[in-house]
Please model this.
Amino acid sequence: MLLLLLAVAPSLWAQRLIQYESGMGSRDPNNSDVWILYQGVHAMHDGMHLYADSALLDMKRNDFTAFRNIRIEISDTTTLTGDHLVYNGNTKIINIRGKQVILVDGATILMTDKLTYDRNANLAFYDTWGHSSNNDINLESRIGRYDANVKEFYIYNDVVLFDTSARLETDTLLYNTINHTAYFVSPTHIYSDSATMYSEEGSYNTSTNYALSTKASHVWTHDHHQLTGDTLHYYHDSKHGLAYGHVWLFDSVNNVACMGGFGESNQEQHFSIVTDSAFVLQVDSHGDSLFLIADTIQVVNNEDRQLETVMAFRAVHMFRNDVQAICDSLFYRAADSMMALYHNPVVWYDTFQCSADTVFIYRDSSGLRLAQLRNNTFAFEQLDPQKFNQVKGRHCDVHFLKGEPTYADVMGSAEMLYYITEESPQHRKLLIGVNYGLGSDMRIYFENRQPNRVVTMGNPDMQTYPFELLPADKHRLKGFRLLVNERPQRSDYLFYDVAPSKVANNKK
Model:
């Protein structure tokens, strides 16, 4: 045992002591423990090789101080260069400084003016600004740490990460050079050719230009779209964003705001979509607002970024100041302001309720221009809780002038019930009688939004009854449905906290 210890001890002691060779050397006259070395100094310690023009070696303290043209080979792939160095063989900690201290670890290059390198943990530290690069990725910060074991940077204070396609600015960053991913937990901006992203927690992959934000997530694209959500995924190269939770999507070119539980925006394919209690507000050039609520709403722009179509699916509620509607699906075409409502649509205009299998609504700058009701048309006007002017047929076209109805054509199996009134000297409406009519087609003329005259064509059968003698089966035409409680109201949209003026003011 004693012989074994005597054999091992010199080997361990040799590993602990710094070995050296130089062209010339002498002892310090003031301290016999210190050697003054110069002319091709080469020191060795535990697998590390150090080269310098001159050096001081304290044999007692196992300290090595080197000067000028310092080069350290820490491993086969890791080197360190600088102008002045202090190394302790006991702690294996390198402190190096110079006009340009450079640490090279494989493809990673770190440059600063003062660096501490811990050989025990393979960690490098700097606190006087540092610039590093890995292939095309560059990192800058005031303070930083590099872990050579996992090829990872932890840097903070005025952090910048950039390459030729993007720039990331934050306060605290963790960057892994193997998976090319940066992780941040402080207010962060990512600037790319396609968008600007803000986040307070997330990650960014410099290889794919994919960003993930999980806190305070916002993206502003360069074609004037904004996407916000609790969690946000954004692919900068394809201009494609996915947002989850409290989604807000805003197109300032077309004055369209979307909200929902999930949102997607793809500017290369010119579409945006929101689902899960989706809401859309669109303000046109005349300041008129379109409100939509549905399960899913999709907005499509053309190649010139102008609004092209809006599609809504399932449980659709639509509100404009002059017309409201519900249906299962809706299609809006911006070019001619045409709106198509499918699957049991119901439309309200003023005191009128209209329904059919399909409804088409056309608008112009002055308001409603034409409403086309196709198949199983039914329309009525409520006079009081018990009395309703009613008309039904296969199809119906309602024509408007400057937003006011002028006449309606009812085509195919037309049937109507109309209460005749006249105004008393006291300006009260007096009920005179009830007109009931059948015909193949009808034209109804309006004056001040009230039916004024009816022309029946094709074997007309018209009868006038005193109200008291109106047959019981004539009070409600077949197919009558009173759905006033389902009519969308302006108050239905207040919980979204979105005002048309707010959207209009954001338009650029």
